[in-house]
């Protein structure tokens, strides 16, 4: 049974988890001197960039990185599009999410374990426009899908929607 669980940032905030993470980081640096660690690993990926146009970047762990087709999206990524930018992301549960020009969105939560029925998704649109087509999480646990904006939180019960918020 292949169960995948992605934990929100607050899980890693405990002193014990920070100690484990630091220990693993030291082992990785010592074991592979002279190599540069990637910002994401396949185990951290919750989705992939499927369409891309214009300027698109992701803020990950404080670093702003350009986005290319096929790049991984990981939990807590802040996806940004420029004035000419748009991006389409397909998540592990086949949810489709697109951002229009001058948009900013953070993926807050993603859990998808259909074998156990454990499923949830939460994203925060900080500004701009978003379109959403539901995937496996909304089919399995529709009450566990939330899209937030600066002024509202939307619980998803249908299959598709579009949101536009003022620029940030």
Description:
- By secondary structure, the protein is an alpha+beta fold.
- The protein has one domain.
- The chain has helices at residues 9-12, 15-31, 136-140, and strands spanning 45-53, 56-60, 63-66, 72-74, 78-81, 86-91, 96-99, 104-113, 118-133, 145-148, 153-155, 160-165.
- Strands 1, 2, 3, 4, 5, 6, 7, 8, 9, 10, 11 and 12 form a twelve-stranded mixed β-sheet that branches.
- β6 and β7 form a beta hairpin.
- The radius of gyration is 17 Å and the shape is globular.
- Residues 1-7 and 9-40 have low confidence and may be disordered.
Low-confidence stretches: 1-7, 9-40
Q: Radius of gyration from the CA trace? A: 17 Å
Main sheet properties: 12 strands, mixed
Structural class: alpha+beta
| Shape assignment | globular
Q: What order do the SSEs take from the amino end to the carboxyl end, as H and E?
A: HHEEEEEEEEEHEEE
Whole-number mean pLDDT: 78
The rounded distance between the terminal residues' Cα atoms is 43 Å
Overall tally of structural domains: 1
Number of strands: 12
* Overall helicity: 10-25%
Put simply, the count of helices is 3
Strand content: 35-45%
Can I get a quick summary?
This protein has one domain. Helix content is 15%, strand content 44%. It contains three helices and twelve strands.
């Amino acid at each position: 049974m292949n169960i995948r669980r992605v934990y929100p940032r607050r899980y890693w905030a405990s002193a014990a988890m920070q100690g484990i993470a630091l220990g693993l980081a030291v082992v990785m640096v010592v074991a592979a001197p002279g190599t540069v660690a990637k910002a994401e690993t396949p185990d951290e990926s919750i989705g992939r960039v499927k369409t891309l146009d214009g300027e698109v970047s992701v803020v990950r762990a404080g670093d702003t990185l350009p986005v290319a087709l096929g790049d991984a999206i990981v939990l807590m990524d802040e996806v940004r599009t420029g004035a000419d930018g748009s991006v389409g992301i397909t998540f592990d549960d086949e949810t489709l999410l697109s951002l229009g020009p001058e948009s900013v969105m953070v993926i807050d939560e993603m859990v998808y374990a259909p074998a156990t029925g454990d499923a949830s998704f939460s994203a925060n649109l900080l500004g701009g426009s978003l379109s959403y087509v539901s995937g496996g999480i909304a089919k399995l646990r529709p009450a566990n899908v939330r899209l937030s904006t600066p002024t509202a939180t939307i619980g998803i019960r249908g299959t598709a929607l579009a949101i536009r918020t003022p620029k940030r």
